[in-house]
Amino acid sequence: MDVENKTPENENLPWVSFCMSTYKRPDFLKTQLKGILSQTFKNFEIIVSDNDPEASGRIVVEKTGDTRVFYYHNSANLGMVKSFNSSLSKAKGEFIVMITDDDPIYPDMLETLYNLSVKYPGYGVYYGGSEILCYSPAIAKVMRAKVGINSCLSNEINYNEEKIYSAEDFPYLFFNYKLGSLMLWSVGIVKREILIQNGGMPDYGTEYFTDLAYTVVNCSHSGMVYVNRALGHQAIHGDNFGFNQLKNLDKYLMAPDSFCNWVEARMSNRSDWKKINKEMHSFVGRATVEFSLFIKKSLINSKLPDQDFKKA
User: Fold this and answer.
1) How far apart are CA 62 and CA 44, in angstroms?
2) Rg of the chain over all Cα atoms, to the nearest angstrom
3) Rounded to an integer, what distance in angstroms lies between the CA atom of residue 276 and that of residue 267?
4) pLDDT digit string, tens, across residues 86-100
5) Which has the closest alpha carbon to 126: 138, 141, 111, 140?
6) Rounded to whole angstroms, how far apart are CA atoms 231 and 249?
7) At what angle do helices 249-267 and 210-222 cross, to 10 degrees?
8) How far is residue 293's CA from residue 257's CA, in Å, rounded to a whole number?
């Protein structure tokens, strides 16, 4: 199959749009763009939304010399979520990948997901598995992981197995941790029409749990196809490891209710909503406790004050 020359019905449109937010991390951005541009599947565009008022990402994009990369500068820092949604508003692809500037994808990601979409047409989302890269012993200790690459694949199915999850079944499996320990949004493609219908990246006042809300709502729309092989990884490093500091405790405190309200607004029309709602509240309760324990453990390991956290 000649994936390199695949085009959608309108040959002038990309099949996939990578929607990226970045902020004052030109080195990360440079590495990420290089990685995306090395994809074996070539029919895509990259939309970069730069939150840096000084436009530090502009020169990085210009140096790629690739016409598939589009740069948009925000005059003020919109925050991660609004910046993501700004890039989404400019995307033209049939499918969307929401991706940060520091979570690398592997060269065969798009080729793998394209082949899944051909083999299993008609689904709204196609996903691969992922890994976590812990950069330091301190991070690995808090994560109960090891320094380096750690697998987050599903233990419910074989390695490299392909699995279809229906829209009816997905929320129950997701809320009961049956789909792997991490569903990383940068290794999945979502139909643009579904993402726009659901409001893009969840914008409910806090970044916490937005990845969880994004995943469960979009995958529950018209089902998801998954391959149990890592197509990228989440990098946990000093610049994004937030368990040892909370810049805004109000955002931490509002996350559970905001998550539940956002999901309910998009899924409460289901006939089984009462049952899903019960599963959701149990899930977000566990997620909040787990996240809080990560913060507490990190504060102890780093010998940092925890008065504000205790108060929260």
Assistant:
1) 17
2) 19
3) 9
4) 999 999 999 999 999
5) 111
6) 34
7) 10
8) 19
Going 247 to 242 to 204 to 195, the CA torsion angle's sign is positive
User: Whole-prediction pTM value?
Assistant: 0.91
Q: How many C-beta atoms surround the C-beta of residue 294 within 10 A?
A: 17
Long-range contacts of 139-148 (CB under 8 A, 24+ apart): 139/236, 139/237, 139/241, 141/297, 141/301, 142/243, 142/244, 142/294, 142/297, 142/298, 142/301, 143/236, 143/294
- Residue 204 · residue 259 · CB < 8 Å: yes
Residue type, 251: K
Q: Which of 285, 292, 267, 177 lies closest to 214 in space, CA to CA? A: 267
| Structure tokens belonging to residue 135 | 């950069």
Structure tokens, 244: 């040892």
Sign of CA dihedral 287, 293, 294, 299: positive
Q: Which amino acid is at 111?
A: E
pLDDT tens digits for range 20-77: 999 999 999 999 999 999 999 999 999 999 999 999 999 999 999 999 999 999 999 9
Residue 100's contacts (CB-CB under 8 Å, 6 or more residues apart) are: 20, 21, 22, 32, 186
117 neighbors 126 (Cβ within 8 angstroms): yes
Beta bridge partners of 95: 16, 191
